[in-house]
Each structure stands twice: as C-alpha cells, then as structure tokens.
Design a protein that fits this description.
Length: 341
C-alpha cells in the first residue's frame, strides 16, 4: 500500500484576496515535498471547482484537495458526489413546501477522499474541524492514509430563476438575514479578512431588513413565527468565525438547527459578540433543536435567501436532509484507514 494518496489539488487563485495565486510557487514546492504523486489545476470562475473535482474522481485520483475558502471547498464537495437533476427530485406542493418527487438513493462513501487547505477569507470549516491554520501544518495533514467519515448535508431550494435547485454542503446552511449577509459579503472586498468582511456585510444587510414569517418542520414537529434567520448546522462555525451552533458535530447524524427568533434589527450589533463566543443560546428568543430533516416555508416577507458554506445559490422554500457518514475527510493520524485504498 502506498504511503500517501494520489492527490489532485483544485486551487482557487483568487481565494484569500488573491493570496493563493501569489503564494502558489511556495505552495506547490511544499506540496511536492510531501506528496510525490501530485496533480493540480486552477479554477477559472464560479462552478469550475465542481467540474475539476468530478474530472479528478473520474480520472482515478484518490484524494481531491480544496485549496481556497469555504466556497471553493463546497464546490469541490459537490464534484465528489453525483447529483440527480433537481427538477426530477424536488417540487413545490400546493401549500408552498418543497417536497421530494423521488427520494434520492443513499450516497456511497466510495468517492475520493476530501483534503482541505484553508486559505480563503472565512475558513469556517477549518474552525469546525479544528484544523491547523498554518500552511505547512495543513499540508502535513494531507500525508498518510488516515481519514475520518463525516456527514454530508443536502438542500433543495428555488434558484434565482424560480426553478428547483439542489446542493450538497458540509458545514453550515441557513436562510433569512444570514443569506442576505452572504449576498453582500460575496460582493464586497475581502482583503480585510473574514471577520471584518462579515461584520461589514452584516451592517449593510441591516438596512431595510424585516424579519421573515416562517413555518419550519423539524422531523415530526412544526414551529412558526417571525425569525431573523434559521441556521441548519453540521459544523459549529460560519460567517467568518461566528460560533453559531455550539456543540454541532460533523459525524453524529443530526443537524443542529438554530432559530434566531423575532429579534429587532437594532439588537443585532449587540448580539454579535455573543455569537462569536457561542454564548447567544442563552437569549430567550434564540432556540436550538436537532433534526435529520428540516423544511422551511416562507409565510410572509421579502424573499428569504438561502446560503450554504459561504455561497448563496437561491431562496426559500427549502428542504434540508442529511447523509450520515458518507464523506471521507483527510485527517492527521488517529482517524480510520479504509482497507484496500
């Protein structure tokens, strides 16, 4: 058995305000020093990382490494697993809920291993997994053949044309005010770093914001009310370091669902420090639940934007479900080695 996986790197040269592109000669030298069987390609625009990851899997690469931010990693994850046409899998029922036409089969864990080199603006998945933040340390994590299996989220929604859409996500998805923040963050300058970028985007998103009137189904229970946002979390962190879902676990087979209730918009700046520390769940208007499946319908309000892993692909209504233990994530020694791989 080879000591290391045959590795293909999908690199976003614009990630981290262009730092990946500027530092590539050093990054490549460090990678080749640790991973002798190495290939790579640069992304050229939105969606390209998904295509490159899918081509790498089809070409027989054993590990696909996402080099960039949370958005790049999300695109790579979506390239590791095939996804049926969302128009064949999802539809709107007569009450305005997203429902499944034909349940998708369980995902196989036979896809390539996912490796992560977090050099983007947010790198929230890095925080959720406890990955090291240094370049050399993270490259060292890619050596050897130890992996851990983690859960994979999937969400069906309406895209910006009003057609059914679907994406996988690994860390956090949400709807409401947070989707509006991601909308502004992805259109702003990110050179100031993840935390400041998201704080500035949050302040922009406050202008004219009104809480949404939502109906939410959590497995076999339903809650209704005006909400600032609803967060469906596999990992703990989003938004450039906000510990939005304390205790969320990537491999427990459950989402942590955080409902930020009818909070006035003027209260949000004062709430942010507590969200970064993870102490906000003590607020009487914020509730946390666990569920395998989450469905959300917009009863009233402006269109509720859906975000996932730092991307903003569509809007409510939406249906989230979890695929437990289907993704193999590259870790330092102490994980599990899949026999014969």
């Amino acid at each position: 058995m080879a000591a290391h996986y045959k590795t293909f790197v999908v690199a976003n040269p614009t990630a981290g305000a262009g730092s990946v592109g500027r530092r590539w000669p050093l990054i490549e030298r460090l990678l080749r020093g640790s991973l002798p069987r190495l290939g790579y390609a640069f992304t050229e625009g939105p969606g390209h990382a998904t295509l490159l990851a899918r081509e790498a899997v089809n070409a027989g690469w054993e590990m696909v490494v996402s080099l960039g931010g949370d958005g790049t990693r999300n695109e790579v994850v979506n390239g590791l697993f095939s996804q049926p046409d969302p128009r064949a899998c999802y539809a709107l029922d007569d009450q305005g809920w997203i429902v499944r036409r034909d349940p998708a089969p369980p995902l196989s864990s036979g896809a390539a291993v996912l490796g992560v080199l977090p050099l983007g603006t947010g790198s929230d998945f890095c925080r959720s997994t406890g990955l090291a933040r240094g370049l050399r340390e993270n490259i060292e994590l890619l050596t050897g053949r130890e992996t851990r299996t983690v859960d994979l989220g999937q969400v069906g929604y309406l895209d910006h044309r009003g057609e059914p859409g679907s994406r996988f996500f690994l860390n956090v998805s949400s709807a409401g005010f947070s989707g509006r923040v991601v909308h502004f963050a992805n259109r702003g300058w990110k050179g100031a770093g993840g935390r400041l970028s998201f704080i500035l985007a949050s302040l922009r998103a406050l202008a004219g914001w009104k809480n949404l009137e939502l109906a939410v189904r959590l497995d076999d229970i339903e809650i209704r009310g005006h909400m600032l946002a609803l967060v469906v979390a596999n990992g703990e962190y989003f938004g450039g370091g906000m510990r939005i879902a304390p205790g969320a676990c990537l491999d427990d087979g459950l989402f942590n669902v955080v409902a930020l209730g009818d909070l006035p918009r003027w209260a949000l700046p004062g709430l942010l420090p507590g969200i970064y520390r993870g102490t906000h769940l003590g607020n009487a208007r914020i509730n946390c639940h666990q569920a395998r499946e989450v469905s959300v319908r917009l009863n009233a309000g402006v269109p509720g934007l859906v975000d996932l892993d730092g991307e903003q692909p569509g809007r409510l209504p939406a249906l989230w479900n979890l695929h437990p233990g289907v993704l193999r994530l590259k870790v330092r020694g102490g994980g599990t080695t899949v026999p014969g791989r």
